[in-house]
Specification:
Elements: E1 8-10, E2 16-18, E3 22-23, H1 29-42, E4 46-48, H2 56-65, E5 74-79, H3 86-100, E6 105-110, H4 120-133, E7 136-142, H5 146-156, E8 162-166, H6 174-182, E9 186-190, H7 203-212, H8 216-227, E10 230-231, H9 238-245, H10 254-261
Parallel strand pairs: 3-4, 4-5, 5-6, 6-7, 7-8, 8-9, 9-10
Antiparallel strand pairs: 1-2
The structure holds NADPH dihydro-nicotinamide-adenine-dinucleotide phosphate and ligand LYEC3VGP.
Family: Belongs to the aldo/keto reductase family.
Pfam family, one: Aldo_ket_red
Organism: Nocardioides endophyticus
Length: about 280
């Protein structure tokens, strides 16, 4: 599908995702279109957006002007918390398609469970039906715990293909990665570099960077790849976009992997986004 030497993961529905994707938040307007086009030129094929990022139009525009056929790109978006009721969720996905200017999505997520509202299983049922219709190729969830996953599986008999969760060295998600793997769900990592609090100076990261002759960012993304999760780093800068993709030419040792995972801490979440309590409408 894509010509670069990027490994792939086959999902539980048979679809294939590249081992790394491109995060588009908070890119907007012209910076978003040019930034996404340069990411595609660098070799990214999986583009991650959401209704709440307010940039679906820009993502669609980048897909149209980048010069690649639509089918070589994988576009993912997300249903916001305010649209969890079944009909609203269906309308939300149609709205995403309209803003993107696309006739199908490759992947669509329930963005957050918002358990106090308690309707995430309705949004999931809507995605199951939209996949049947062919409007969405693969369906996933984001920020779901084991209990949220088990509820949607029990209610629909359909297991999400992907669970996109916060995952970076300060929050390595050992337990949730196992929860996903036990259910045959592919993990994706949001804020894979740790956003602006990136742990680039941590000795576990900096020392590995020196040993392998790469940057700290590349070490963290390689750690993500070796964990088996799909990171979706965001960068507006073409040089960092290229560097972030260039993580398939070296391998971290078991000791280096463990030392980075050991940076995890109980208060490691970036903004306290605990899926059991965080409300994102
Ligand atoms: N499902 C969910 O709830 C969530 C999903 N997401 C998704 O995850 C994506 C990525 O997460 P995000 O929060 O952006 O965090 P990232 O961990 O991807 O970090 C992005 C930040 O790091 C900088 N950066 C990128 N590459 C490098 C590098 N090699 N060296 C130094 N700095 C670098 C970027 O700046 P610059 O642009 O200047 O390079 C930017 O400030 C989002 O874009 C979004 O698609 C994010 C949060 C929640
Ligand atoms: O970016 C996303 O996908 C989110 O879900 C937001 O929570 C985002 O990370 C944010 O705005 C954090 O303050």
């Amino acid at each position: 599908m894509w010509d670069m030497a990027i490994p792939t993961h086959t999902l539980n529905d048979g679809s294939v995702l590249p081992a790394i994707g491109f995060g588009t938040y908070p890119l907007k307007d012209d910076e978003a279109v040019s930034g996404i086009v340069s990411a595609i030129e660098a070799g990214y094929r999986l583009l991650d957006t959401a209704v709440n990022y307010g940039n679906e139009r820009e993502v669609g525009e980048a897909v149209r002007v980048c010069g690649l056929p639509r089918e070589e790109l994988l576009v993912a978006s997300k249903i916001p918390g305010r649209d969890h009721e079944y009909d609203a969720a269906i309308a939300s996905v149609h709205g995403s398609l309209e803003r993107l200017g696309l006739d199908y999505l490759d992947l669509h997520f329930v963005h957050w469970p918002n358990p106090s509202v308690g309707k995430y299983a309705e949004a999931w049922r809507a995605l199951v039906d939209l996949r049947e219709e062919g409007l969405v190729r693969s369906i996933g969830v984001s920020n779901f715990t084991a209990a949220h996953l088990d509820r949607v599986i029990a209610e629909t008999g359909v297991t999400p293909a992907v669970n996109q969760i916060e995952l970076h060295p300060y929050f390595p998600q050992v337990e949730m990665r196992a929860v996903n793997a036990e259910r045959g769900i592919q993990t994706e990592s949001w804020s894979p570099l740790g956003k602006r609090q990136a742990p680039f100076a941590e000795p576990a990261v900096a020392d590995a960077a020196e040993v392998h002759g790469v940057t700290p960012g590349q070490v963290i993304l390689r750690w993500q790849v070796q964990l088996g999760s799909i990171p979706i780093p965001k960068s507006a800068a073409p040089d960092r976009q290229r560097a972030n993709l260039d993580v398939f030419g070296f391998e971290l040792t078991d000791a280096e992997m463990s030392a980075i995972t050991a940076l995890g801490r109980s208060d490691g979440r970036l903004f306290g986004g605990d899926p059991d309590t965080h409300e994102e409408m």
